[in-house]
Each structure stands twice: as structure tokens, then as C-alpha cells.
Amino acid sequence: MNVEGKNYRTIWLKEDDETIISIIDQRYLPHKFIIEDLHSVNEVVQAIKDMHVRGAGLIGATAGYGMYLAAIEAGHKNSFDDHLNESAFRLKSARPTAVNPELAVNRQLDAIVKGKTTSEKIKIAKETAVMIADEDAAFCKSIGLHGVKIIERIAAKKKDEPVNILTHCNAGWLAFVDYGSATAPIYEAHERGINVHVWVDETRPRNQGAGLTAWELLNHGVPHTVITDNAGGHLMQHGLADLVITGADRVTRAGDAANKIGTYLKALAAHDNRIPFYVALPSSTFDWNIRDGLEEIKVEERSADEVKYVEGLCEDEIKKVLITPLQSAASNYGFDVTPARLITGLITERGVCKAAEEYISNLFPGKNMYV
Fold first, then answer.
1. Which of 95, 149, 188, 308 could form a disulfide with 144 if both were Cys (CB 3.0 to 4.6 A apart)?
2. Residue of 229, 249, 287, 336 marked catalytic
3. 258 located within any domain
4. What's the number of domains the chain is made of?
């Protein structure tokens, strides 16, 4: 992603000290662009938990880099394995709904154990972390190449009129290492000169759509309009949305998709108005061990303060403002599950398929059994 004339990924090894992990601290966007350095596993866990980084792909890559720092730290402990395993547990527990951190951590554990010396284990951990990040970017690039065909078909029917795409939360570059999942087809369409316009759900309570997706699209020059979360159904009823593309944090082998709270309602509205509803995801977001999303996906409940307070720019300072009665209780479910029956298709790095176990297993052979 280009930011003020410079290309960035969302996470990288610090150029002058590769024992430090650099990230874009997303808490300050869109008002301030701040790079944060992470020096320890503790700092990585906190960054994931408190959403300095967020989005399925990015927190997976961050957990992978966290295991690299864990290996460095373990080299100074009495028991290398004990510290590594403790760090692995903490990284996997930081954001429980997304599957990507668990897969990244397990991949690191499988790789690190092959090292014979401490220095070799650290080297393997570093190489594996970089590999996980590179794969995430490459997968998202491929998602864009497959997903753009859907936009092209709609554009051919609309001729010179814009293709209006509605998205929810942020499944963009900031949610992955690069390109994004839901935004990858949009960026690819824009690069090809297709006339696209994006309806950006504000996405309460943390406003990742209004703050992050809009900032991304603005930097990339993609026409967009921020809307309230409740406006999507109205737009669909009046023919103002041609397509819905969202991301996902965990998708079952049968196609149920957990994503930011409110996604299910968009799927219902799209279904009622016969508008295609696609979920874009890299294969690292599939949980091959579960089938029933409603029963088997653990939905994270976050702090009530995220509902009761909003943050924004006031006189060049980011300030927090209470919007409810102080004594009122608030509930904050972070995700909901959209059943496969409401999903038109899944856009993956291997292609587009129906959200059903038969089609998913055909696209990913060898994953049709519990692992």
C-alpha cells in the first residue's frame, strides 16, 4: 500500500535490527500514521489483544513473528521448550475467534523443533515468520485476480455506470500483510480501469470501516462513500448496491463464516434483495476441524467500553467521548456467524467456489477430512 509516496506492508522486520518487529499501529488511524516497534512476546500479545494490529491474516502473521521473538527469548531461559510453549499458548489466546494465529503458531512449533541448536531454532523461526507473511501477501494478491472477474462481469452489464460494492469492517490491506481479502478484487478492478465505487460500512463499535477502509481507499484513489451500518439494506432495496464482499476471521469446512459483528445482517439483506454476497479469504482462514459455525465457533466478547465510548479527532488530538449513560450496561460481541446458505461464493487464492463442503474440498483436496 502506498502511504504518502512510500510503499508499506503492515508488519516487517526492522531494517537496522531484525530482532525487532515493526507494525503500523492501527489505533491511531485515520488521523495519525504511527509505526510501533515490538521487542518482546509480551508486546506482541498486547498488540494483538488491544488491536494495534487486527484482521485475520495480519494477526496470524503477527503471531508468527511473535514466535520468532519467543525463540530469541527462549534462548536465554533455563528451558527453551517451556518458554516457547508458554508463548505459543498466549499468542493463540490473544484473539480466539480468528483461526490464523493458531495455524501460524502451530506451524512455527512444527518448524522450530527441527533445529538442533538454539541459534538454528531462532534462524528457522525467523525464516518461517517471513514465509508466513510473504504467503499471506501472495494469497491476497491471488484473491484479487480471481475476485476481479466477478466485478468485470457486473461491469460489462452496467457499461459506463459504476459497479457499487458494499463492504463491512476492514478486510483490506490493513487486515492482512498486503492487498487485503475483500479489497483485493476492488484494488485490482481499479487498477484495470473499471469504474468501481465502494459503500463503506462505518462498522461500530470500533469503526474500522469509517476509519481504516475509508483511509485505505482514499490513499489508493478508489471512489467510496462512508455509510452508517444500518444503511446497507436501504441501498440494496433501491438498487444502489450491485455486490457485497466481506472478509472472514474463521470459515468452517462447510462454508459458515465468522466475521465482524453485523456481517450476518448484511447477508440477510443481500439474500432478500438477490444481491451476490461473497466472502473473500485466504486458505489460512479455513478451520478444517469444524463444520457447524454456529455451534463450534467461539465468538469473542470484548470490553463494554468499546460500545460506550467513541474516539475521534478534536482540535488535533484524538479524544475519547462517552456516548451512553455512564451507569448503563453494554454488551459487545465482536463477531457473528453467517450461515453458508446465505453466501453466494467464497473467493480464495485458488479460485471461487460455492460455500459448501463438497465445493470447498474440491478446491482444496486433502482437506476434506478432519486434521
1. 188
2. 249
3. yes
4. 2
